[in-house]
Design brief:
The chain is of the alpha/beta class and about 260 residues long. The protein has one domain (about 10-190, about 225-250): NAD(P)-binding Rossmann-like Domain (Rossmann fold, 3-Layer(aba) Sandwich). The protein contains 8 helices and 7 strands. Strands 3-2-1-4-5-6-7 form a 7-stranded parallel β-sheet, with helices on both faces. The two termini are about 30 Å apart.
Length: about 260
């Protein structure tokens, strides 16, 4: 990561106020990028992320917008261009968890909500950002997915469906935008130390997420830094040619619980 230089580039990270999004935003800033921090509700946490980026000497600003809202998303993308200049990195990270019920016990509204954020939202932000991304010789889009798409476990249909649809978007977009110099890739973490991860861990163990460390490769649950390292490689000059690919952050396929 120390050799990656993103100076002169501007990134938008959706869902960047906490967890994996915050980790990615900070990693991009450490590598030299300016960062637009998107959030939906937690303005205080977003302000903390902005302050942490500013402390690294990079420009940052928070933008409140749900990726499920067309008007708010369009206004955000326009504001970022006015504040920073055209984007060259887009990280589609915004997401929510499902309730963990069977298909028989899940109503359509929950499915529609998750698809609206993970898939339709990522489509919307990508579509709105493409005119800016195409202005550079090289730009990058990363879709943050999940190893959930490898197993499609029971009691997770809304999440599994939404993440799979997000991956389909990335793989399609990679083919469409290759001539524009836009690389599109997927980073798919397993359970990760984050607010969402903590809630899932409590549902599994009734305790702290680190109670699961012994079940994971390398003796620990992955952190946002592990996810961010993959993102940095994908968006950097260390990756001159790779597009339309997926990297699972799951310790050789062993991060199961």
């Amino acid at each position: 990561m120390a050799d990656i230089d993103l100076a002169g580039r501007t990134a938008l990270v959706t869902g960047a106020s906490r967890g994996i999004g915050r980790g990615i935003a900070l990693a991009l800033a450490k590598a030299g990028a300016d960062v637009a921090v998107n959030y939906t509700r937690d303005g205080e946490a977003a302000a903390e992320t902005v302050a942490a980026i500013a402390a690294l000497g990079r420009k940052a600003k928070a933008y409140q917008a749900s990726v499920a809202d067309e008007d708010a998303s369009a206004a955000m993308i326009a504001a970022i261009a006015a504040d920073f200049g055209p984007l060259s990195i887009l990280i589609n990270n915004a997401g929510v968890a499902s309730r963990g019920k069977t298909v028989a016990d899940t109503d359509a509204a929950e499915v529609e909500k998750l698809l609206a954020i993970h898939a339709v939202g990522a489509h919307r932000i990508s579509r709105l950002a493409l005119p800016q991304l195409r202005q550079h010789d090289r730009s990058d889009i990363i879709v943050i997915s999940s190893v959930a798409t490898l197993g499609h476990a029971a009691n997770g249909a809304p999440y599994n469906m939404a993440k799979a649809a997000g991956e389909a978007l990335a793989l399609t977009l990679a083919k469409e935008e290759v001539r524009s110099g836009v690389r599109v890739n997927i980073v798919a973490p397993s359970l990760t130390v984050s607010d969402m991860g903590e809630r899932l861990a409590r549902a599994i163990t009734g305790g702290d997420i680190h109670d699961l460390d012994a079940r994971f490769p390398f003796g620990r649950v992955p952190t946002p830094d592990d996810v961010a390292a993959a993102v940095l490689w994908f968006v950097s000059d260390a990756n001159p040619y790779c597009s339309g690919q997926k990297l699972n952050i799951d310790g050789a396929g062993q991060a199961r619980f």
